[in-house]
Amino acid sequence: MKLTFLGTGTSVGVPAIGCTCHTCTSPDPHDKRLRCSALIETERTRILIDTGPDFRQQMLTQPFQKIDAVLLTHIHYDHVGGIDDLRPFCQFGEVNVYANEITCRALMQTVPYCFAEHRYPGAPAILLHTLKPHEPLQVNELEVMPICVMHDKLPILGFRIGKLAYITDMKTIGEEEMPYLDGVEVLVVNALRYQPVHHSHQSVDDAIAFARRVGARQTWLIHSCHDIGRHAEVNEKLPPQIQLAYDGQVVEI
Questions:
Q1: Which long-range contacts does 233-238 make (Cβ < 8 Å, 24+ apart)?
Q2: What is the dihedral of CA 50, 53, 59, 64, to 10 degrees?
Q3: pLDDT digit string, tens, across residues 126-136
Q4: DSSP state, residue 165
Q5: Which of 16, 26, 51, 209 can pair with 82 through a Cys bridge, CB separation 3.0 to 4.6 Å?
Q6: Residues 75, 97: contact at Cβ < 8 Å?
Q7: pTM
Q8: What is the rounded distance in angstroms from the CA atom of residue 95 to the CA atom of residue 69?
Q9: Residues 6 or more apart from 166 whose CB is under 8 A from it?
Q10: Average pLDDT score over residue span 81-92
Q11: What angle do CA 231, 237, 241 make, to 5 degrees?
Q12: Over the stretch 107-123, which tens digit does the pLDDT of each residue have?
């Protein structure tokens, strides 16, 4: 199984518009972070996690192939703003999109023309499915286990797929969710910045503590803003088994 990080940045991306900070002016391509999204692929199956506003740009870097399932973590724009750009993939058939009940309801308001009885001509052909935590989803040979984490007071979804767990925008997680992470070898989790503490996102220190609780062999940090610092400098400070991911990075699992 192959994981490709399509985007590793927070809601405004890096560089941030109008910013001339140390990170935003970095010449290192590792410091160019689009909004968070990822591809999980095997020889038979292709799963996309989140369709943010950079989705079109991200998919231009990838082979044009069928997407078997789209998993949405939550309704915030930086995670669903590119959903209309699923249109080209509809030539392979209707696209199955999976999300929790809150996200499904909100999408009906966000892009109503995709779900009207008489669909707007040219709108993406989306089949929307409601996911519940702890009810597994089978996508060909891959089992997806949704888990619930809290984005401040908003319940959102993380996903366990085999030895991989992908979690973004988490602030806290209930103890009842931890057994679903037993045996995870590769953990992807959000780390916004070092300081100041944010009301709805983990800091780097929070993410490190969580990674140690999970006990994964390797942890990749995502959803990072410019305040975190430059990629190379941050990774020098982090333990080798916990590192910042970067856009375009491929991890074999």
A1: 234/204, 238/204, 238/208
A2: 80
A3: 999 999 999 99
A4: E
A5: 51
A6: no
A7: 0.97
A8: 7
A9: 38, 40, 49, 158, 159, 188
A10: 97
A11: 85
A12: 999 999 988 888 888 89
